[in-house]
Records
---
Amino acid sequence: MTTIQKAWAQEAWAQTVAKVDKTSKRIGDGFPHASVGGEYKLEPAYWWTAGFWPGLLWLLYRDTKDEGLKQLAESCEQQLDQVVTDYYRLDHDIGFMWTLTSVARYKLTGADDSKRRALLAANLLAARFNVKGSYIRAWNPWREGEDNAGWAIIDCMMNLPLLHWATLTTGDPRFKEIAVRHADMAVEHFIRPDGSVNHIVIFDPATGEKLSVNGGQGFAPESAWSRGTAWAIYGMSLSYKYTGDEKYLHAAKRAAHFFLANLPEDHVPHWDFRLPDGIPAYRDSSAGACAACGLLLIAEQVNGQEASLYREAGERILHSLYTNYGAWDSETEEGLVTHGTSHYPEGKNIDVPLIYGDYYFVEGLSRLLGHGELFW
Ligand code: GLY
């Protein structure tokens, strides 16, 4: 990074630290998801976003050593114990939840109780693997009569690092084997030839036969949900990091090229890259922040000019989020990064700050500033 680029990232970091110092007084050890009307709504501990706030607090603690933030993150992690006991609400998002709480704390402090929790979570995630279809099952039947035993989703690529971590920590290859088989399935069935991705692929859970695709949080089955593309960029580059298998790097690059080629002028994506006329093209800043982290990780794993290309693309997105989307000086907005879109088809949390947008923005800054290893 040039000195000028470093200067903006340092400035953004200082603003982030100051803002979170304030917001943490209200949010405390709660589980924010979307900031509606300027205030983060808190969700139950079982909600899939439960790891992002404590993960963000750990990113800041690593630099500031602020004991207050550490205690909040630890309290969030302890509250997740009840989610394991309750069991019924657990789904594929175990990876998001325990990577940014227990794995993060274990990596930063070596705490044995966090290692135990993360290993338990990895076992529960591994148990969702469908051996016939080679996919980690998404969700559960949340509503009466719902049958989603055959569903797999692109988001789940971000859950795989928990399995890789478990193999590295225990020496037991089963976790990694499941992660590799799920990632291979995703390369085959999710990443389309043009680099766009499917959100949901449906298999016959008994035979493993692929049945259909579903638009999920994107506009339509054949459209291109931008956050799904971001999950693919980052998830595939993480799979490459853990395995060295070039097919994951190629998949990450393909998704990255599609993502970059479809960005508007300010480098922050619309919520879907293929919207028909008449459908509102809200931005999804969270997709931009997550993709930026994936681009930075690709850059770290390739050389020379190619590395500069991916790194600069990631920096451009983060810089635009900082200058055009940040709520730094707002006393009436708790979110850091505005204009995220959580679930347009269900009309939920549209054009608002999202905690995962904030998390990935802060992770991206932390990478630019060289603060330390990934929690993933
Ligand atoms: N399903 C996780 C997401 O909204 O990206």
---
Amino acid sequence: MIDLSTLNTGLFVGGEWRAAAESFTTFNPATGQPLAELGSANAAEVDAAVAAATAAFRGEWGALAPSRKGQLLNKLADLVERDLDQLAALESLDMGRPVGASAALMIPNLIGTLRYYAGWADKINGELISNDGYMGGPVPTHAYTRREPLGVVAAIVPWNAPLMILGWKLAPALACGNTVIIKPAEDASLSILRLAELIAEAGFPAGTVNVLPGLGKVAGEALAVHPGIKKISFTGSTETGRAILRNSAGNFKRTALELGGKAPQIIFDDANLEAAIQGAAMGLFFNQGEVCAAGTRILAHRSVYDSVLGGLKGAAEAQVIGDPFDSATTMGPLVSARQRDRVVEYLKKGADEGAELIAGGSAPDRPGYFVEPTVLAGDNSMTVAQEEIFGPVGIVVPFDSDDEAVALANDNQYGLSATVWTNNVSRAHTISGQIEAGAIGVNGWSPLAPQLPWGGVKASGVGRELGYEGILAYTETKTVTVVL
Ligand code: NAD
């Protein structure tokens, strides 16, 4: 079993571990038993982290050559690779995902993101801009832009994919020369606390990265209102995103908000049905359905509707729910009792509104926070088709025409991602252009690769992470005009 006795569980500030004035208890989602006691940062401790991050920004980190910053990011990637199994185990223990998926997908995603942005660190350039000359001429000017770091950036991270999502914020922020304060989610901080130890081991200057476990209402809010922080990069619920936007107004912080989703998966009559059903099931049940891009609205052409229902029923019943450390398990527990109860509430609401139960439908009577993989049939106006459930629950809705499929896909407050299953290349591109979402996957999920921009529209948030957009998101443009 994993030994937590040597893990630092306090606050990592200015390159040192400090005991916090207060603490909170976390629970093992597979058993419901207490797991760890973590430091809970208060407003004064947030002030101390901002001071340390500001000093590093103005001091050693700020002065470090860009290529050296890249080397440190690569060194961190090496250490994550070395400790991959341990990080995977810590994260699965904390939030319930089967450990094989943590080791095969989530931690490698962090490594890939660190290496991708390590390569960017010494390639962040401005532009030379031609223009009409000083006040319109005839005296020419030499005008150019610089891409400068923002300063201290706060990364507020959710519990569903702590290290992967943190990587999308941390790696570009550091590559661009910012310093960072991380607030992990209270339900899953352990893997990020271990990462802090690796950051120290890699040799980043003190204060470059600070980690503050703590409560959203206390530490999160203190970060959002803090005048010393220049940007908040947040992934989590839409409601918290709104609060962060309001709280950031004081000093006009930049905000990147990656919020919820209710992704449609459109299965056309010309799709490879076997692949579509398999892909739709993965989109529903991977990570216990606790995925912002989970494809929880399956829109099926009426001619394949019954086959899709049958296929998803089979896929749900084939899931093995259990201990994340049992190699037979394909679906672990949800992260917390609160999240399980929230999902069960939605299941009740679905039944009340007349959704037909195809598979699953309840929380098994056993210790831990498990919910059965559930497939419903119904229409797009039902609460279970409109709101993000964040659990292994999908609803299948029939459609008759391409226009209707697009209208149904767009009839939702969210717009993070969508999947289109078709073998008609023209239809694939046309529909991809018509769906209101930040990312579209055709005949597969959007791959969440470091090179590809990621983020939403509508209530799914603002801003993009990853790819070159990640560099733009963590730099400010300065224009310099020299009158010649
Ligand atoms: P949340 O938005 O409350 O928490 C996410 C992060 O924000 C955590 O680190 C939390 O401590 C912090 N936070 C909470 N309140 C804050 C505040 N006022 N100011 C600053 N930071 C704050 O999410 P949750 O309650 O853990 O989950 C609720 C729902 O959010 C889920 O059911 C799901 O719908 C959604 N969610 C989405 C994602 C995603 O990837 N888009 C991830 C997690 C949760």
---
Amino acid sequence: MTAYDYDLFVIGGGSGGVRAARVSAAHGARVALAEEHKVGGTCVIRGCVPKKLLVYGAHFAEDLADARRFGWNVPKCDFSWPVLRDNVLAEVTRLEGLYTDTLTKHDVEVLKGRATVTGPHSIDLAGRKITAGTILVASGATPIVPDFPGAEHGITSNEAFHLDALPERVVIAGGGYIANEFAGIFHEFGAKVSIVNRSDVILRGYDESIRDRLLTISMMKGIEFKFHCAFERVEKGEDGRLTVHMSGSDPIEADLLMYAIGRKPNTAGLGLETAGVDLDGNGAVVVNADNQSTCDSIYAVGDVTNRVQLTPVAIREGQAFADTLFGNKPTRVDYENIPAAVFSHPPLASVGMTEGQARNKLGSVKTYTSDFRPMKNVLANRNERALYKLVVDSETDQVVGIHMIGPDAPEILQAAAIAVKAGLKKSQFDEVVALHPTMSEELVLMR
Ligand code: NDP
């Protein structure tokens, strides 16, 4: 029927690639997918999933402490890192199997190995020449490792899931998602954690009041923050202990140094230049609204395009790609009002415009806040206040942003995001009767 070996060749078995391959095959395309590591990609293998399981594991530290105030006689409890680590890794292996099964059940041929592009329709896989009508680059992104003397003594989140032992003192570089999530994890497991950031802004892009609340609570818990510091060198002693030297601060001793300073698209050595695929200054594949690169037969979805580095977005892009190309159903991803969360301790979550963004864009905005101590925290004597904020367009009364920090904020926000996406007004929030006693009732009680 066609001169090509496959209709579609997908490079990368992560969230975007797997969805695109599976759906394209279901639409009738002949599909192969190459993966050099494990099917599942960053999210399943070394990101969202194992991280969330570690967050659950870490939270028991606070739950066990709080339980005593609720009458439970909790004896001294020990934590075993190897038990949690191995259980999490076993779950990751189980999920990897499920992802591979899904692909093979949909007649996607899964090929192990590193694929490189050799032309608009050709791929090399460990010396094997393969041709395809369309190539989809879904190779994801990888943590950035800085460059200074001794930088090789640090790890990234990739390695954090495999540590032999829990470190006593951890230095984390960066102040974004991964830094704050892992700071919470290591701190709850009993480590002394220092976050070292080049600016004095953590979680840039989130609403200022929510970021400030996380900073305050994290510092209260004992996490140390060093701002406006640049790494100079790291020395490793005979005993394996690290001394981290930086400008703007005295050196810090640590057992573990972890970099969380962003992720760069995986395009190095992929051969994309052989097909005339343009990359941007960060090495990301430049694509149009239909995920098509500057080479007509090559498309890209997910983190490799550096648009929104979130799994559900990559999945949507993969779905839109497959429906458009092979399902006769042209679809584009709507990037408006994407909810996001940071699984810190406590977690925070957000959808829509921050107060600052709304003021810039809309001019006149009203904000409503609820600053409260969750009932459970009151009885537990836990001095941690939650903060919810609604940002409302003064002219139309539309709720254009919701920002929250507090227990279960991501779980609550997912439902609230429907209202923001639907363009509901503040008066419609007010019409809803509170569900008492919950934390989420605050969303309809702000006046
Ligand atoms: P982020 O982009 O969240 O944060 C990067 C941090 O590192 C910022 O504080 C930034 O500072 C700092 N930084 C950037 N470059 C340098 C540098 N050269 N030297 C020193 N510091 C630097 O990156 P992460 O690595 O934490 O996460 C990567 C992405 O993965 C996230 O953006 C997110 O999209 C995704 N992710 C999502 C999660 C979730 O949904 N819960 C969880 C984990 C990751 P500054 O702000 O001053 O530039």
